[in-house]
Design goal:
With 388 residues, the chain is α/β, with parallel strands linked by helices. 45% of the residues lie in helices and 16% in strands. The chain has a seven-stranded parallel beta sheet, with helices on both faces. A six-stranded parallel beta sheet has the order 10-9-8-11-12-13, with helices on both faces.
């Protein structure tokens, strides 16, 4: 089968959740199918991207999104009623490229990741199509209204309403719809949302596995540090949780790890808070830390940081919101908290009770490897492609 995969970002390097999901799905699909990749790119292209992707794709087409193009795309979206999330990535030159790829390769199936790319597939009514909602942008936008500055509220409200409408209306244009978790499926504003197939992420357990390393930090937060939910979470961690931890354990050190830390994140640096930025081998930051703390407040989707930490046998502490998507058993495979005081209790318990910490780590490891496997999750996707 020939599968055209349409992405809003080049899926390499694996520094964002959507890239990680797309890369691993493409890798698995390529074992038995021909993958034709179309991706938009609004940043500098990684020098190794083509070489890595050519291992799995029979054809690759990348279209650059310039700042000027993005500006006009957003202006157009303001007037045509599409969400800015969609308008940002859509323009005629890219549509023509998609059309030419379809004419040339005649794919048996079109797979769009995120609603950002749906417009490119909509005109092609004769080809079976699958949309991976992945995350529910409307819910994420709704949650941001409670955390962003007041001057952003009108824009957030406008975008929230448009996303609700678009997530509903785009449903009818695709034969299959997928999403990352049951929690997110239930947020899709469509009466037939139960038709959406949950395709969870996986974790590469050949790569993410326990490795010996000297422990330099008690706590770790990992993720793309320019992504608003991650930024909001580390601010909450450093400003609300850590002062209470330090009252009891003043020597505790926190490592904030991940690509592109913005100014808000860099401002959190201190003698007890280190900001690593991008690292070549992220496993080292996991291995040199004792506990992963992910106090996600407005996150949508499944937190890969939790899966990776569990695979490396780190005990994890996270919010109810994040664990609802993950589905781990509280106080057995993970610790769950929702207030600073609850987080402090969990953190201190794991730091002072090595037996409890080891128990959570081992149970979390078993949970991750038994439930989140790229081969088995992508097999569900292959099955959907074969139905239409």
């Amino acid at each position: 089968m020939k599968i055209l995969v349409i992405l809003s970002r080049v899926p390499y390097p694996l520094d964002k959740g959507d890239k990680l999901r797309a890369f691993n799905q493409i890798k698995q699909l390529s074992k038995k199918h021909q993958v034709i990749l179309f991706a938009l790119n609004d940043s500098e292209l990684d020098e190794f991207a083509f070489a890595e992707l050519k291992k799995y794709c029979v054809a690759i087409s990348i279209v650059k999104l310039s700042k000027l193009t993005i500006f006009f795309n957003l202006i157009r979206a303001l007037f045509n009623g599409n969400p800015l999330q969609v308008g940002y990535f859509y323009f005629n030159r890219a549509q023509k490229k998609v059309d030419s790829l379809i004419a040339k390769h005649k794919p048996d199936h079109i797979y769009c990741q995120l609603i950002r790319t749906a417009e490119y597939a909509k005109p092609h009514t004769n080809t079976p199509k699958t949309l991976d909602y992945m995350d529910v942008f409307s819910k994420g936008m709704e949650r941001r209204k409670s955390t962003d500055p007041f001057y952003m509220w009108p824009i957030l409200a406008l975008e929230h309403n448009r996303l609700l409408k678009y997530e509903h209306d785009v449903f009818q244009f695709f034969n299959n719809k997928t999403i990352i978790s049951d929690q997110d499926k239930n947020f899709i504003p469509h009466p037939q949302r139960q038709e959406i197939k949950v395709i969870p992420n996986g974790v590469d357990t050949d790569y993410f596995k326990s490795i010996p390393f000297e422990k330099e930090f008690e706590l770790l937060f990992n993720g793309n540090m320019n992504y608003p939910p991650n930024v909001e979470s580390v601010e909450y961690l450093v400003n609300k949780i850590m002062p209470l931890v330090w009252e009891k354990l003043p020597k505790v050190r926190l490592l904030i790890s991940g690509a592109s830390p913005n100014n808000k994140v860099m401002a959190l640096k201190s003698d007890r808070v280190e900001i690593s930025g991008w690292v070549f081998d992220i496993r080292e930051n996991f291995a040199k830390s004792k506990i992963l703390v992910a106090p996600m407040q407005i996150s949508i989707g499944l937190q890969n940081k939790l899966l990776e930490a569990m695979a490396m046998q780190l005990p994890c502490v996270t919010s109810t919101l994040a664990n609802n998507a993950l589905g781990a058993k509280p106080n057995d495979q993970i610790l769950v908290a929702d207030t600073p005081e609850q987080y402090v209790k969990c953190i201190i318990e794991l730091l002072q009770n090595e037996t409890k910490a080891r128990e959570i780590a081992i149970n979390g490891y078993k949970f991750a490897i038994n439930n989140f496997n790229w081969n088995s999750s992508t097999a569900k996707l292959k099955e959907l492609f074969g139905k239409k």
